[in-house]
Amino acid sequence: MSDSTELYPIIFDVVNSYTHHKVLQRRFSSILHKAFRGEAICPSQCAALIVKFLGEDLTSQHQPIKEIFSTVAADRIIVTHAELFSDTAYEEKIHVSLLRLPSIVNEMGDVIFKEKRHVGTVGAFLAFGATFAAYCEQKEGLGVLAMKKIVVSVSEYLDHHVGSWLKTNGGVVS
């Protein structure tokens, strides 16, 4: 994107890494669920997932800003408000199509950041983006392309609407 700030690569790195973590977590959960029903061969499926996401972790140069995104806070928000991040919530409240993904992300960002910008709202938006991407990634007609579009949309939104707050806070939670 031509009007992105110098923070965009760092933001993208964090959003992409956390989203891949949530996709992997969702897939692993699905594999285990099938295994309990005797339908899955866990070792080969797990190995394939590990190979797919190997090396997609945060680069060391972007590690300092990770604190501001508080993925631990995002995980807590997902657990505490599981009903908001569930498949049922996404199916009932959001009409998903590849074309609408950027506007869905922007609308949700506007709602989350309407009144405040702080670690909790950044964590909530990160949680939304990652769980929504993981949901879309497994839907027929959406898949990996949807996940990638969501990662870019969340990264762009954070860069344009929260970037100055990130700079002010130095990328480190105190």
UniProtKB/TrEMBL annotation:
The keyword Lyase does not apply. Transmembrane segments: none annotated. InterPro entries: Bcl-2-like_sf, Bcl2-like. GO terms for biological process: apoptotic process; regulation of apoptotic process. It comes from the Eukaryota. Keywords: Apoptosis. The keyword Phosphoprotein does not apply. SUPFAM superfamilies: Bcl-2 inhibitors of programmed cell death (SSF56854). This is Negative regulation of cellular pH reduction. It comes from Desmophyllum pertusum. The gene is BCL2_1.
